[in-house]
Amino acid sequence: MEPVRYDDRQEIVSLPLQPAAAKKRRNWKKHLYAALLLLPLLLFIIGFFVVPMLYILYLSFIETKGEAGAIYSIGNYVRFFTDPYYLHSLWLTIKVSLYTVIVSLLLGYPVALTMAKCSPRVRGLLTLLVASPLLISIVVRNFGWYLLLLPNGTVHQLLESLGITQSPPKLLFSETGVVIGLSNAYLPFMILSIATSLYNIDPSLEKAAAILGAGPFRSFVSITLPLSLPGIVSGIVLVFSMSMSAYVTPALMGGANVPMLPVVAYDQIINLLRWTYGSAVSYVLLGITLVIVTVFTRMMERGRYREVFR
Amino acid sequence: MQALANDVEIRGVSKRIGRNVILDGIDLEVKQGELLTLLGPSGCGKTSTLNVIAGFLDIDQGDVFIKGRRMTNVPAYKRGLGMVFQTYSLFPHMTVYENLDFGLSLRKVAKDEKKRRIQTALELVKMTGLENRYPRELSGGQRQRVAIARALVVQPTLLLLDEPLSNLDAKLRHELRAEIKRLQKEVGVTTIFVTHDQEEALSMSDRIVVMNKGKIEQVGTPTEIYAHPRTEFVFQFIGKSNQLEGTVKSLDSRMIRVELADGGQVLVEAENVMGADRSCTAGDAVKLYIRPEKLAIQAAGETPHNNSHAATIVQMNYLGSAWEIEVSLLGKRMQVLRPSVEAGWTIGTEVMVGWNPSDMMIVKK
Amino acid sequence: MKVLGKLRAAIAFLSLVYILIPLLVTIPASFTSASYPSFPPHGFSLQWYSKLLERPEFVEAFWNSVQFAFLAAFFSVLLGTLGAIAIAKYDIPGKSYLVSLLTSPLTVPQLVLGIALLVYFTPLLLAGTPTGLLIAHIVICVPYVVRFVLTGLSGFDYTLERAAAILGASPLTVFRRVTLPLIRPAILSGALFSFLTSFDNVTVSLFMISPGMRTLPLEIFSNMQDAYSPIVASVSSVVIIISVVLILLLEKIHGIGRLLGSSH
């Protein structure tokens, strides 16, 4: 490398050029570091997530494994969509998920509103209260409902003592029970989703509406509600998706009476060892959920309030 | 009900939040058709006063009357006012037309009348043709015009503006300043404007209310506020100021003679005393204030005014439209504003600086 | 119109109670002196806690869950933090796609994931083994760590690292003394979150176990289905207490609202 050259006034006249080779060596080293850090994680995810998911997708297209080899077809899917038992199960799952969404929305919006209106300290406390149950195991939360809803449980005793009824109300092991369990589990997601979009509403918008003559109700309907639509939509999508694929809560709160699709799929795989069919059922579940969610989201994003989503 | 010349009357309004006194005994009258500015630094209570008038802030004591009607317990949405906010606050999910339509629909105005009023309002703010745009498609200046149109289209009793120009760049601010002033005169609506920018206040207002720490310092026309400030705060807040200190030597009904710290003497007009009681006596320690443009600077040997003193040029700053010359005078540094400098003036030049006694303000320490 | 405000407050209060009530009734119910679970409990007794200690399957399940949770948290933090640092620091092509890929396990239902791993692990001889279960837990937990650390690094000023390097620090030292302390809260939160996620897990674990492997939530699950007794209340209470302690710790370090706000 050439040395630095100075002229008579001791000012730098030229600097040695960086040889292209040295620069390349440095870049290569940088890429090595990046690769070393990233590769374990990347390989892990690909190896233990992406590949398994693709594998069962592949399996779902295998009808039977005969002696000659596997027969590839969409037979499993055909079987699913032509069997009334499975179609009923799918419909039941969609129905229960819709009910869960409605309950979560109706119960969740007021909580989100309250959180948006209160002081930061109270808001922090409410967020903690709302979010904590999400980190407590679902079986424990369902057990609490068992205490409350079983025959001779708290609700039954309460109704008896109030003289309303003698026989136990059919809450557990019914669709109602599953909706209670699922809405209870997923309500925090709906609340947090709506609350986030409420926090982002410019507070002077409500002031502007009031000055123009809008009372609290009108201001809510014309301003707050439309502007919270993104949060509502993402909350609905979240709760719906999770309800569609929930296993533990429907199994515990519904049992054999409420054969939701995940419960059916579990049965197929674990008890009946029908892996290829079970794989197909899984992808049907994923596919239907995705289709419904996409249609819904598109509808909302193109509808009357599409500006809100920009 | 007698006809009132005051659209707004505020009597003895006070408000506390926790231990902070937000407003302390505010008395104010706003005349019909005038553009009144509430001016002061942040935290002085100007926005709070506006919010009290708008109905967004409850008061602990006092009364607010709008057009003779008592406003206690009247919520904001029933007051029939118009307001423009610092953050535009256009409804983002509605077009310009729908934004303007909002208030009119609430008042159940007939469809044709609505259309007419909206068109008129848009013409007024020079935003015709943009009815179907959404706020995010408009520039900052355009949004503010729409906000003003939206406030005016409902023909409000009062127009309230809460620092509407603070979010705009300097050029836009100047442009819109003139627009708002023109609009206000054209429409004739009583307007209350809040700002911390004294240039804005001086150029736009019919009257200015200078506020500080929840109290009113002075109410007056822009000239009164600038040339005849009644308190030290008002003098220092508006425009630049130079300060001297001294003791009152003697006074009569017309003039006060002050002896400065290092022996020089100055004359000040007696009516230029600032402060609560606006008077002083011999022996009082006082502070003297004068604006840079009121100081006359001449070459050494000439006597520009009654109060002339020898000074030395310490710094010369060229501002483009004028020169800001810092001089050392009587032991203190003072700023002088002069359109030009004489040839040969440089740091160290000896000069004479003088002023008119009527231009100096005096206040007890 | 004030009526509407009161109505909103009332519904909000009821909803909060609704969310918390299953947890609130479980703990008192565990102190019942009767032989069947009920709320309110009959009498007061600690029998169901002492009986818990006498039941080897619960004790074993508890320790298993704790161990799996520790290991899952450890590996998730290790893999996730290094990966997140690489993504945040270096100019990797297709960065956003990469992040989506690495956090995609969050978007797939645990049911499907469980099926996929069971089927996949069988020819690999991992099905029904502790290793397989651990891998499954790591798959679920690591996306959270990646998210948290990426967020923690998003405001990071890389000139700090360059300043340290100019002063003579080696890359390892730079990492240890400049980068690491700044992302410590994110790593701790990721560790705690992973621990809880693994400790709580039911659905995926159901597909990964073989007879003889026990985790605490799965014990609770099977007891609820065929051995409904107050002992389920006491073991559930234990889970609640442990979870609450860790949640409060998490709240102190990072603030739960911020964590969940950014993960969905």
What would you say this structure looks like, in words?
The complex is a heterotrimer of chains A (310), B (365) and C (264). Chain A contains 13 helices and 4 strands. Chain A is mostly helical. Chain A has 2 domains: 20-59; 82-309, Orthogonal Bundle (MetI-like fold). A two-stranded antiparallel sheet of chain A has the order 1-2. In chain A, a hairpin with a 4-residue loop joins strand 3 and strand 4. Chain A is globular and about 70 Å long. Helix content of chain B is 23%, strand content 36%. In chain B, the strands form 4 sheets. Chain B has a 6-stranded mixed beta sheet with strand order 6-7-8-3-9-10, with helices on both faces. In chain B, strands 13-12-11-14-20 form a 5-stranded antiparallel beta sheet, with no helix packed on it. In chain B, helix 5 links the parallel strand 7 and strand 8 (190-195). Chain C is mainly alpha-helical and 264 residues long. Chain C contains 12 helices and no strands. Chain C has helices at residues 2-29, 47-53, 56-89, 95-103, 110-121, 130-153, 159-166, 171-200, 203-208, 216-226, 230-253, 256-263. Chain C starts with a helix and ends with a helix. The chains are: A mainly alpha (310), B alpha+beta (365), C mainly alpha (264). Chains in contact: A-B, A-C. The interface between A and C is large, with 89 and 92 residues. Chain A: Belongs to the binding-protein-dependent transport system permease family. CysTW subfamily.
